[in-house]
Design brief:
The chain has 9 helices and no strands. By secondary structure, it is mainly alpha-helical.
Length: about 210
């Protein structure tokens, strides 16, 4: 192993160390109360070291979401490119994948949805912002291909595939955020998966063309 390669590995190891610490601090304190000093203490690093890797707290917060988007993009590519599946089967597989995406890291995905609807995005570096945009665009594009293929084969209604993808994503994010807020008020009200299943079932039935007997 060369010196440069060793340096790159050490840099990535340190970056992951910071991300793990940030996740714990954000989980314990929430985004607003957490500080870079808190994260530095948790990572057992100096605050100055954190700023070598992340521009600010907002960028560190956003970096947690990138792992989720990368995982989502992998699943979308696998499903949309599966030639052996019909569009309705791909949609079923995509719905199952969304449950897996949530299970991948529930806390981070909830944070990601909050991030998308906040002023935090304005404080990100162009590099991080471009990566988030690119992964989001690829995922929505892959889901859109499923709806476009289904419409072409007469399985799904003919609507703009991107609009259908946005609606699909809105079901997912909206239900998660709403169910999470209800759970904060009453810990016994944990119906997220059941509600998500109903939402996707309504969506599935709504876009399918009804067969004529």
């Amino acid at each position: 192993m060369g010196i440069q390669e060793r340096k790159e590995r050490e840099k990535e190891r340190r970056r992951q160390q910071i991300i793990v610490a940030a996740k714990k601090v954000f989980s314990d304190k929430g985004f607003n109360r957490a500080t870079m000093d808190d994260i530095a203490n948790e990572a057992e690093l100096s605050p100055g070291t954190l700023y070598l890797y992340f521009k600010n707290k907002e960028e560190l917060y956003a970096s947690l979401s990138i792992r989720i988007l990368q995982y989502l993009n992998i699943r979308v590519e696998q499903i949309s490119g599966a030639k052996e599946l019909q569009p309705d089967q791909k949609l079923d597989a995509m719905i199952e994948a969304m449950f897996d995406v949530y299970e991948f890291d529930p806390l981070v995905i909830i944070n990601m949805f909050h991030l998308q609807s906040s002023e935090t995005l304005k404080n990100l570096s162009p590099q991080v912002m471009d990566e988030i945009k690119d992964l989001s665009r690829k995922s929505i594009g892959g889901i859109s291909k499923i709806f476009a293929e289904g419409a072409k084969k007469g399985i799904f209604i003919k609507r703009h595939p991107v609009a259908l993808s946005d609606t699909f994503w809105a079901f997912f994010s909206g239900i998660i955020l709403w169910s999470t807020s209800k759970k904060i008020i009453n810990k016994d009200k944990d119906y997220l998966k059941k509600t998500l299943g109903i939402g996707f079932e309504i969506f599935r039935q709504g876009i399918k063309i009804k067969s004529r007997s």
